[in-house]
Design brief:
This protein is elongated. It is 47% helix and 17% strand. Helix 1 packs across helix 2. Helix 8 links the parallel strand 6 and strand 7. It contains 13 helices and 12 strands. By secondary structure, it is of the alpha+beta class.
């Protein structure tokens, strides 16, 4: 917990051990943490110098815990400096460091985009090899702040399913809007139905189509990754990373087209099932959005009340209008009443 503020594991162990008692000697803390006494003493002296710990009492002069209580001298005892006072400068320092890193990131990104020396390379880059492909895949997923769009086709090659699960969980924890279209054969793999069920439960919106033209990952509509034929790279997995361009816009458009025609997947006791192809009824989640919109609540307030992102509310509203054949929300309300949706 405190390593983010610059404390190492042993320092954090000593610091948290002191939380449980008003004062303690180095020997007490060594016994509690399992560290040797000399290391504990050095850490306490360092924490004292940094203002995180203070000496509560020390009989006589000389270094704390020296000479093994010579002449009846009691070992020094330590107490925590109030964390609200002691840790605040460390927190400010970390915030400033993060701000500097974000500023540098923005400058480097802008400089890279504006460089005219390699115009083709600024749009498309080729990545070859299992490690490099996996590395760029995780970069795109972990760097997403708003939205991830994914096509799933066939069995994973460069990125094992369990590794992809970790990146997905990280994105969902950050509140990233995660939409996935899977080809029907993707769910035929061993354990894939259970993985899909876990993903939907975690917050991924998953839909199914009979087939897809390619695998794809789009991050924040800023970058996309598309695998290449392994025959073109000597049998090694390879991919292209597409940056913001007309080509990226086309890939996003392709995703939205497939998404609008795909069938939503729902969880079952053992896996997932797809909405029947002929079923043109709104989903339960879409009806929740519809009820709030018809009550005059704005998209933003509806998102807040339902615990969704604003993008999700807008997307569900758009699908409702497509189902109703409506050009406006007024027409949508009229169709909903006529069709008995609510």
């Amino acid at each position: 917990m405190l390593q983010a503020l610059g404390l190492g594991p042993a320092e954090e162990a000593i610091y948290t051990a002191l939380l449980a008692r008003p004062t303690a000697s180095a020997q007490d803390l060594a016994r509690q943490t399992g560290l040797v006494k000399t290391e504990t003493t050095c850490i306490l002296l360092d924490l004292t110098a940094r203002g995180l710990v203070a000496i509560a009492d020390e009989a006589g002069s000389g270094a704390p815990d020296s000479a093994d209580r010579e002449a009846g001298r009691r070992p020094a005892r330590y107490r925590l400096t109030p964390p609200s006072v002691a840790l605040a400068p460390f927190l400010v320092e970390q915030r400033n460091a993060l701000h500097r890193a974000e500023t540098a990131f923005s400058m480097l990104t802008e400089q890279y985009r504006s460089t005219a020396a390699h115009p083709a390379g600024s749009v498309v880059e080729v990545v070859v090899g299992v490690e490099q492909v996996a590395h760029r895949f995780h970069q795109l997923q972990r760097g997403a702040q708003q939205e991830l769009l994914v096509f799933l086709v066939g069995a994973p090659i460069a990125v094992p399913r369990e590794d992809a699960d970790m990146s997905e969980s990280s994105a969902l924890d950050r509140g990233v809007d995660f939409r996935v279209v899977a080809a029907k054969d993707y769910l035929d793999g061993p354990g894939m139905a259970q993985d899909a069920r876990a993903g939907i439960t975690a917050g991924i919106e998953l839909r199914l189509v009979d087939s897809l033209p390619l695998k794809m990952l789009v991050s924040d509509r800023e970058r996309a990754m598309v695998p290449l034929d392994m025959a073109d790279s000597g049998g090694e997995p390879s991919a292209i990373v597409v940056h913001r361009s007309g080509l990226l816009t086309a890939l996003v458009h392709l995703f939205e087209k497939e998404w609008s025609q795909a069938r939503p997947l729902y969880t079952t006791a053992t896996g997932v099932r797809a909405e029947p192809a002929g079923d043109q009824q709104p989903t339960e989640g879409e009806l929740e959005v519809l009820a709030l919109l018809l009550a005059g609540i704005s998209d933003r307030r509806a998102a807040s009340q339902l615990g969704l992102s604003i993008r999700t509310v807008e997307r569900r509203t758009r699908r409702l209008m497509d189902l109703a054949g409506a050009d406006s929300r007024l027409q949508l309300g009229w169709h909903a009443a006529r069709a008995g949706w609510l």
